[in-house]
Prior knowledge:
Elements: E1 19-27, E2 32-39, E3 42-49
Antiparallel strand pairs: 1-2, 2-3
Amino acid sequence: MNSIKFSSKINSTVQNSLIYVSKISRKRNFEELEIEIQTNGIQNQKRIRVEA
């Protein structure tokens, strides 16, 4: 079974804010990840590509 490890640093100017990755979608056999980041109720969808 394939597994993905990732780490991210999030810099925020908002104090006491909750920042977390709410969703990770796998597409095309791990070649493309869709990461959804939620910050204070505002959802920002980020897409990253990984090399297999």
